[in-house]
Every structure is written in structure tokens, then in C-alpha cells.
Amino acid sequence: MKVLLTKDVYKLGRAGDVKRVADGYGRNFLMPQGFAVLATPGALKQVDKIRKQATEKRTLLNSEMGAVADKLAALSITFAAKAGETGKLYGSITTQDLTNAIKAKSGIEVKKQQVDMQPLRSLGEHKAHVRLTMDLIPEIKIVVYREGESEPGPEADAAASSSKATPEPKAEKATSEA
After folding, report:
1. Which of 46, 144, 169, 174 has its CA 20 to 30 A from that of 29?
2. Which CATH architecture has domain 2-45?
């Protein structure tokens, strides 16, 4: 099915583009959400108008989100995690963990769907991209270090002492004699 995009769709195209999509994708997602209309001759006459409106909207949104993108690009997030001798984590650091850390550190609320990264499963330095708009995709630096070691970087002493939580006491097993 051919559709005319009325809004920018991530990984598909920009507003005003005519795309061939699967019938179900167009009928069940793009059209009900208002992202596209069927590419009829009447709709194709409106391509220039749709592109002009989308370009104006995109430039306005990019100018508003520019400061947020700069703040996110300067952000460096550290995680303390338990890891084996080879540097492989016993768990993983997910997009949800990253969004919670971004909100705690900078106050910027990001949805986990906007974060483009695979779950982190090893120690070291990693990069993640946050998709704010189609054009603004800042890169965030993520440092994962072994729990119990000092945090790497120049602010290691101050951040390590403030970010470490006190370990929870283990609950003793209650035995009942019957």
C-alpha cells in the first residue's frame, strides 16, 4: 500500500514523503495514529503544503530542543555494577536504568523508547544515543565500573562517596519448630 506521510515517522520517512508500506502497518498503525493518509491523487496534490508545514514545525522544535540536546551531550553517567573476573556483568544496564539516571542527574525526562542502545553487559565506557527529534540525537557517555572499586574519572572521590548506598542487612532465616 502507498501512503503519504503527514508527520515525521522514525525509521520510515519525513512528512510529505510517499512510501510503500505493508498493508497492516499502514491500516492499523500509521493511519489511525494520524501519521499517514492513503496516497490518492487528491492527497498527492497536498504534498507541498504538508512538507512546508512540517519543515516549519521541525525547525521550531529543533530550536526549542537544542538546549536540551547540548545538556544531554555533555552528560556523563556512571554505574556501579557487580561483575565477574572477565569484566562481564552479572546483570545488565538497560534503557530504563539509563533514563532513571538521566532524570536523577540532569532533571530531563526521557522515555526509554527514545534511547538507542543495547543492554550493557560489560565493564568499561559505552555510548548511547537519545532521539529527541528526527534531527537532534545527542550521544551520552556511560561508564560502568566494578562495584566496590573507585569510580573512574576526575570527580571520582566526590561522586563515589555520594552515590554509594549503605548495604542492606541480610534477613535471617526464621526457623519454626512444629
Report:
1. 46
2. 3-Layer(aba) Sandwich (3.40)
Contact 17, 37 (CB under 8 A): no
Give residues with Cβ within 8 angstroms of 87, minimum separation 6. Answer: 122, 123, 124
Cα distances from 2 to residues 19, 35, 46, 49, 163, in angstroms, run 6, 13, 15, 19, 53
CATH 3.40.5.10 maps onto the chain at 2-45
At residue 37, φ and ψ (nearest 5 deg) are -130, 160
DSSP string over 71-129: HHHT-EEEEEE-B-TTSEEEEEE-HHHHHHHHHHHH-----GGGEE-PPEEESEEEEEE
Regions of the chain with pLDDT less than 70: 153-178
pLDDT at 148: 78
pTM: 0.70
Boundaries of CATH 3.10.430.100 in the chain? 68-163
